[in-house]
Amino acid sequence: MTAPGRRSSTFTRLLRHGFTDPSAAERLLDSAELAAVRDDPVLLEALGATADPDLALLGLVRLLEAQPGSLARRELLDTVIAAKPLRDRLLGVLGASAALADHLARHPRDWEVLVTYEPSDLHPGVLEFEHGLAEAADPVALRVAYRRCLLSIAARDVCGTTDVPQTAAELADLATATLRAALALASAAAPEDAALCRLAVIAMGKCGGHELNYVSDVDVIFVGEAAEGVDEAKAVPAATRLAAHLMRICSETTVEGSIWPVDANLRPEGRNGPLVRTLSSHLAYYQRWAKTWEFQALLKARPVAGDPDLGAAYVDALAPLVWQAAERENFVADVQKMRRRVVENIPVAEIDRELKLGPGGLRDVEFAVQMLQLVHGRADATLRSGTTLDALQALAAGGYVGRSDAVQLDEAYRFLRSMEHRIQLYRLRRTHLVPEDEADQRRIGRSLGLRADPVAELNREWRRHAGVVRRLHEKLFYRPLLDAAAQLAPGEVRLSPKAARERLVALGYVDPAAALRHLEALASGVTRKAAIQRTLLPVLLGWFADSADPDAGLLNFRNVSDALGKTPWYLRLLRDEGAAAENLARVLSAGRLAPDLLMRAPEAVALLGGDLQPRGRAPLEQEVLAAAGRAENAEQGVTAARGVRRRELFRAAAFDIVGSYGTETRPVEADQGALVDVVGAAVSDLTAATLAGTLRAVVRRGWGDTLPTRFTVIGMGRFGGHELGYGSDADVLFVHEPREGVPEREASDAANKVVSEMRRLLQIPSADPPLLIDADLRPEGKSGPLVRTLKSYEAYYRRWSLVWESQALLRAEPVAGDADLGRRFVDLIAPLRYPAEGLGEDAVREIRRLKARMESERLPRGTDPKLHTKLGPGGLSDVEWTVQLIQMRHGWSEPGLRTTRTREALAAARAAGLLSTEDAETLDEAWVLATRVRNAVMLVRGRAGDTFPTDGRELAAVGRYLGYGPGHVGDMLDAYRRTARRARTVVEDLFYGA
C-alpha cells in the first residue's frame, strides 16, 4: 500500500508534468507492467513532454499489456528508457493519437518501426513506402502496412523532425505507394483485365499537390487506353473494372478499418460521367465543356500510379488548356463565386469552428494562390507548382505577391495546417472542425508547443492567423497592382506592366491601361490622401471586380476622390466606417444613375456611412418647405428643393443597390417586394415634397402667403400609387377653388400662372435632374385646360366622363397643396372609381377593348413583346389592369380594395376571395419583377427603359442587380419570360374571362 506522504508527492509530480487526472495516472504507474520504472524520472519527463500525458501513459500500458510475453515487455520497456529517439517518437505518437495507440495495441510489434533512426528514415519517399507496403498480399494486410507507415510519419511529425510541408508531402507519397499497391492487387485479381488495357491514375487535390492531410479523400482521375492490338470497346470496360476495384480496396471498411476514400468525382461530368475515359475523350471534354473550376482543379494533376507514359501524356496534353483558363470570360468571378458557394454551404453552427472552409481558413489561401497562378502562369512557368506554399513562394519571388504578405500567409497556412493535422491525428477521422471540448483543445495546443495556457494560447493564435488570412487573401490579388502603379519602393520586385494588365483583364477590366492610370493617380505620392487610398484600394478593387463594370467603378472612385480628396471627413469616413467604403464601391460600380447623382453633389457620399433607409414624406416636406421659405426668390427656392430631391434620390438608389447586391454587413434583401415598395414610396414621397416646395416658392413670389384660390395637386398613375420609379414623370391633376370674394377669372388666372411657373422652374437646366410634370390624364387630355375648379371637375365627370377616366382615377391621391380641397376631390371621384353595384358589362367590355388596342398599337416596333416590362404579356400593364378591373367591380363592397397601391389592392382581393392565393402570388411576383427590371435599367443606364438593354455589359449589370452572377444573363431572361408567361395565363383568365 502506498504511504499517504508518498502518494501526495507523486500526485504533485504528476500535476507538474501536465497530467490532468493524476489519480488515474498513479494507478497506471502502479500497474505490474510499469512497476519497475514507475519512479524513473526519465519516463515522467518524457510523458510530460507529450501533447496529452494521460493519453500517452494509457497507450503505453495498453501496448505493454499487448506484448506476447514478459521478455517482449521487458525489451520494449528497456528500449523506451534507454533510447531517447524511440522514447520521444513512441510516447509522442501515443500522446497525440488514440487511433494509432489502438493500432499498436492490435499489432504490438509495430513499435519496432520507430526504433531505426537512419538518414533514409528521416525523409522517406515513395520508394521507401512502397518497400514498407510490399508484403501486403490482400486489402486487410495493406491496411495494416499502411498504418505502420503512417505511424512513422506521425512520429516524425509530433517530434518536430519534419515540418508541415514535409509531413504533408510524406503523406502524399504514402498515398502514391498505396494506390500503386492497390492497383497491383486489383490487377492480380483480374489479370485478364490488366492485359487488355493501359490504366493511369492521376492524383488531384491535395494528393496531387503533394500536400495531403492525415485523413482525406484521395482525389483521382482515371485515364485508360487499349493495350496494343486490343479493341478500345473491350479495353475501356476492363480499365473501369480495375479502377473500381482499386477504389474498393482503399475505401471499404474491414476489421482493420479503411485506408481512405478514393474520390473520382473531379472527373469530366463528375459522378454522372464514365469512371474511365481515353486520353482523347478527356481532351475533347476539356476543350469543349469544362468549367473554370475544372481547370483550377487540374493545377494539381499529377500521375501517381499505373502506366507512367500514359499519365505523363495526360498531363502534357491538358497543361496548355489549364494555362489558358484565365482568358475565359468571367474567370475571376467564377472562382470567387465558387469560393462563396463553399462558405454558404457551411452549417451556421459550424462556420466559426471550420478550419478549412470558413472565412480566414485554409481554402482562402489556396483559392487566392491558385487564381494568381492561373492568371500569371501562362507567361511564367516558375509558378506552375501544385503545392500551395511552393507556389506562394514563387509568386513572391516573381513580384506577383508582396513579400511581406507572402510571409504572413505562409506562416498562417503552416499554423492552420498544423492544427488540421493534430485534429485529424487524434482519431484518424476526416474533419476540419476545431473541437469544442477543452481537453481536446488542450491536447492540440500542447502538441503545437503552447504549454503555458494551451487552450487560451491556441484560440488566440488560431484567431490571429485566421484574421491575417481573412485580411490578405483578397488583397493578395490587388495590392501588387498598386505597387506596380505607384512604384514607391525602389528595388522591390514588382509586377511588370504586362503582368499588371493581365491581372486587370482577369478581374474583368476592359481597359487595363486606363485602370492602371487611375491607380497611379490615386496611389502615387506621399500625401496622407495617397496613403489612405493605398490602404483602401485593395479592398475596393475587389468590390469593383464583383460588379458588372469594374472600369466604371474605379473611374467613378477617382472622380469622387478628386472632388473630395482634400476634405478631411471624406477619407476619415472611408477609413473608419467599414460599411461606408463597401457601400461606396457598390454604388459606384452598379451603373450610371447613382454616380451621376453623387458627382453633382459629392458631399452626399457622407450618407453612405449612416442609415440609408429613405426618409418619409413628413420630414422631407418639412425640410423642403423650410428651404423654400428661406430662399430670396422662387428660382432659389426651387433650386433648394431640387437639391434635396437629388440628395434623397441618391439615398434611395444607394439603399436599393446595397439591398440588391448585399454587403459584408448586410445580406441581400430577401423580400424583393418589400424593396420595391420602399423605393417606390421613397421616390413618390420625394416627388410630392418637391412639388410642395415648388408650390410654396411660386406662391410666395407672386402672392405672398395666400393665393387668391385654394390649390391642390393630385398624384395620378404610379405617382398616386406610391410606385414611382427613378425615371418616372409625375402624372398629376391640378385643382383649384376660388376663395370667398375672389372673382373666378382672377382665381383661374392665378391657378394657371402657378401651374405654368411650377412646370418652368422644375425643368430649368441645372446640375439637378429635372422633374417633368405630366397633366395629360386631365379631362379632355391635352385639349383641356391645365387646371380646373372643383366644380368644373364635378360637371365634367357627371356629364362626359369615360370609363378609362374612371379607371385612371383609381390611382388619384392628393400629394401637395390644400389638404381639405384634396380630400373633397377624393370624395367627388369615389362614385366614379368604385361605382355602386360595380361595373356594368358594357363598361367591362370597353375596358377589355381598350386594353387589347393598347397591346396592339403602343408596343414599340422591333421590341420583343415577351421582354417588354410595361406592355408585354404578363408585364406591368397586364397586372395593373387586372387588379384595377377587380377594384372597379368590387370596390364598392370591399373597403380593402379602395387603395391606390397595386400590391395592396391585390392582397385585399386575395383576402376577399376574389382570386386564389396562387393567382395572387403569380401576379404579385410578375409585377415586382417587372418593376425591379425597370428600376435596374434606370440605375444601370441612367435613363428610363421598359425593356432589357441590348448592350452586353449593361445587360450583365441588370442581371447582377437582380441576383444573377456573371455568365447567367440567359438564365435571367428565361426567368423573366417564365414569370411573365405564368402571369399572362392568370390575366387571360381573370381579365379577359378566357
Describe what this molecule looks like in 3D.
With 994 residues, the chain is mainly α. The chain contains 45 helices and ten strands. The strands form two sheets. Strands 1, 2, 3, 4 and 5 form a five-stranded mixed sheet that branches. Helix 14 (232-251) links the parallel strand 2 (218-226) and strand 3. Helix 26 (512-523) packs parallel to helix 28 and helix 28 crosses helix 30 (578-588).
Structural key phrases:
994 residues, five-stranded mixed β-sheet, single chain, 62% helix, mainly alpha
Provide a brief overview of the structure.
With 994 residues, the protein is mainly alpha-helical. 62% of the residues lie in helices and 5% in strands. 49% of the residues are buried.
Rg, Å, rounded: 38 Å
Q: Could you name the ranges where pLDDT drops below 50 across 5 or more consecutive residues?
A: 1-6
What profile does the largest beta sheet have?
A: 5 strands, mixed
What characteristic shape results from the CA principal axes? elongated
Structural class: mainly alpha
Range of strand content: 5-15%
- Total helical elements: 45
Report mean pLDDT, rounded to a whole number: 92
- The level of helicity is 55-70%
Secondary structure tally: strands = 10
Termini separation comes to 99 Å
Note the topology.
Elements: H1 4-16, H2 22-29, H3 41-48, H4 53-66, H5 70-82, H6 84-96, H7 98-106, H8 119-122, H9 126-133, H10 139-158, H11 164-189, H12 191-196, E1 197-203, H13 205-208, E2 218-226, H14 232-251, E3 262-263, E4 276-277, H15 279-288, H16 292-298, E5 302-306, H17 308-322, H18 331-344, H19 362-376, H20 388-397, H21 403-427, H22 438-447, H23 454-472, H24 475-486, H25 497-506, H26 512-523, H27 528-545, H28 550-564, H29 568-576, H30 578-588, H31 593-600, H32 617-630, H33 634-661, H34 672-703, E6 709-715, H35 717-720, E7 730-738, H36 744-762, E8 773-774, E9 787-789, H37 790-799, H38 803-808, E10 813-817, H39 819-833, H40 841-857, H41 876-890, H42 902-911, H43 917-941, H44 952-961, H45 969-990
Parallel strand pairs: 2-3, 2-4, 7-8, 7-9
Antiparallel strand pairs: 1-2, 1-5, 6-7, 6-10
Helix pairs in contact: 1-2, 2-4, 4-6, 4-7, 5-6, 6-10, 9-11, 10-11, 11-14, 15-17, 18-19, 19-20, 20-21, 21-23, 22-23, 24-25, 24-26, 24-27, 25-26, 26-28, 27-28, 27-30, 28-30, 29-30, 30-33, 31-33, 32-33, 32-34, 33-34, 34-36, 41-42, 42-43, 43-44, 43-45
